[in-house]
Amino acid sequence: MLTDPRTGGERRRIALGGAPEVAAAVAEARAAAAPWASLAPRDRARRLLRFADLIEERSAEYTAAERAGTGKPAAEAAGEVANCADLLRFCAGAARSGVSPAGGRYLPGRESWVRWEPLGVIGVIVPWNYPLMMAAWRIGPALATGNTVVLKPALTTPDTALLLARDAAATLGPGVLLTVPGDRDTGRLLVEGDIDAVAFTGSEAGGRDVVARAGLRRVSLELGGNCPALVLPDAPPDTCAALVRAATYNAGQSCAAPARVITLRENYRETVEGLAKAMAERRAGVHFGPLNNADQADRYDRIVRRSAAGIEHIAPLAPPPGEEGGHWRPGRVLADLPPDDPAVLEEVFAPVLTVQAADGHAEALALADSVPQALAASVWGARTDEALELAGGLNAGEVWVNCHLEQTAELPHGGRGSSGHGTDMSVLALTEYQRPKTVTVRVGRG
């Protein structure tokens, strides 16, 4: 039974994939792997472009399906459908550009070059916060480089994944992209199935489980953020408003969203007040949607309840009429926190900002890097040299200066530490789903 996060009520029933369904999907993808890989890059690109066109043509249907599972505002969901189509188009072209070293004579009397070959069948497991966009980030480069894919969406959000499989069958061919909805057991069956690699986006615990089950097969992981934002005394006037917008986008359920604001002592109180004012103007039910499910709402409640914050600013709730029973949670700003506060150490994954003060840049960097996750971060200040020095000192896979949560298909996204390893987006993502083969030929008579 699937529930509507906006109301908490039942919205749909769907069968979960078990061992027979997973095995059948993997076998079908395996049968389709060689024909798909044998296509010339331009022919695969044509089919992927048609796939993207069909998603765009049916954007209203995709938007409705995305909203059904997530409760996102219509504008957010529509934007993610557009991003999905854009990412597929980018990958279709990027795979034709080549990322191999140039061929040449690296050894005397020998000519060498590198071939990039697909891995085969990729098991893709994606979370519920961005069901369509996270799927696109994984399936785009996997398909473009000649792999076939079995996609396992999150239990609560299978809707758009089912549409992707339907439209892929019509444009890419049978067996190239298949969807098996299900729960964690379904995902485990897929990871342990006859696949060649796993691309997993989700929790750290889930990532560790995937690694343990995958054995020696290739694994690409994106496991969450708890991201810091360093706010200097000369930060731009719109800093607090921009951070609050980023922290409440998708109800804060973004791995790269700002979660921990770190200031210097001299601008601490000013920043707390600025964030509180901006948060008071962002209302759940008007400006952002609900949390996705009851477990996530319970997590928010548990961490907030355990927090020892001396200052707490809570924004008002405004659920639409008839949706009062949904998983709505207000935006919060928590300040005057001990260093080991659960709201600091744990990723709330909700519209919550903590604020900490540091005595100088070195301590600010130490606070920023004090949690195991290292996905993304931002620095806010007027001096370019100062901001870039701090950006270089942060342990993160992606750093923004005077902005946050701004991404495009051309730029790589990936983490370090407990945030996992691997790359989404950009031409670098293509190598996640390929293996290099060096070919060296003796030339001449010697």
TrEMBL record:
Q: Does the keyword Amino-acid biosynthesis apply?
A: no
Q: Where is the Aldehyde dehydrogenase domain?
A: 3-439
Its domain of life?
Bacteria
Q: Which GO terms label this protein's molecular function in UniProt?
A: oxidoreductase activity, acting on the aldehyde or oxo group of donors, NAD or NADP as acceptor
Q: Which UniProt keywords apply?
A: Oxidoreductase
- Please name the Pfam families in this protein's record: Aldedh (PF00171)
Do the record's keywords include Oxidoreductase?
yes
Family matches, as PANTHER family = ALDEHYDE DEHYDROGENASE-RELATED
This one is known as Aldehyde dehydrogenase
- From which organism does this entry originate? Streptomyces antioxidans
